[in-house]
Amino acid sequence: MNRVEQDTRIDKAMQRMLFFMVFVSPLLVLQIVRKEVFLWLQVTFVTMFFYKEKKIELIKEPLIVMLFAEPFIAGVFAQFSSMTETYKRTAINLAIMALPLYFAICCIIKLMKDKSYKTIIKIIVNAIKMVVLVELVWIFIQLLLYRLFGVDINQLIFVDLLHLVENASFIRSWIWYPSGLSWHSAVLAPLFVMGILFFDNPVIRILIVIESCVCGNRTTLLGVMCCLLLLLLKTMHMRKIKIEKEKDTSDYSYIDCSCCNINSNWYRTEIFNKNIW
Description:
- By secondary structure, the protein is mainly α.
- It has helices at residues 3-24, 37-53, 62-79, 85-114, 117-149, 153-161, 188-198, 202-214, 218-276; strands at residues 31-32, 35-36, 170-172, 175-177.
- The strands form 2 sheets. It has a two-stranded antiparallel ribbon.
- The longest helix has 59 residues, at 218-276.
- The chain is globular, with a radius of gyration of 29 Å.
- Keywords: Membrane, Transmembrane, Transmembrane helix.
- The chain crosses the membrane at residues 18-51, 63-80, 92-111, 123-141, 174-198, 204-233.
């Protein structure tokens, strides 16, 4: 196998890895040795990229750098606070766990520059749309089983059966809420907002609104409602522009018809005058 064929195979494998990485990103109950599958896929994706390119170009935009530097700053300050040792270790661990995501974003941006920008965006959008559909179906199953049989399917599968996580359910004030493939429905907020934007199907949008109402998270519901409001305003604006264009076209047609009538009357008058004289 020559170098070109090898690079082509690696590129296709990286695109598939990118799809799965984005797909599992909100599925927090899927873990391996107490770490999210999303984290392991990030490490694999970055490793594949480094194997092919032999280097990783770091993002230099100040805003993005600060976003990823903030957990480290918070972790350092936490060590000098009155927090318990558990919280101090967690603060450092969260900062370290953010590093693979930073490198993965660096690789994705480089891919967008080297490959087709639209291809990479399409892969990401398709992955998000797929996971939105999975979450919609899973939340429906969660709600159905819990209301009819009192069975918490997340607890049954991911805790009792597979032992992937210690907690897979969202319970607030002793009230159970469907949270999808996560232990907190706040994870659904960005996912459902993107679902509203990416799907034109009214049935899917209605399902997103309904499940935003029953998931027990105000952020998710507020995000979806704000998104719908913006889409409604956009639709009204586009409809107004369309009506104005149709009105202008109608006015121009009326003017053209009037001009034609005037010209026709003038021509008839000329012919009549010539015949008379």
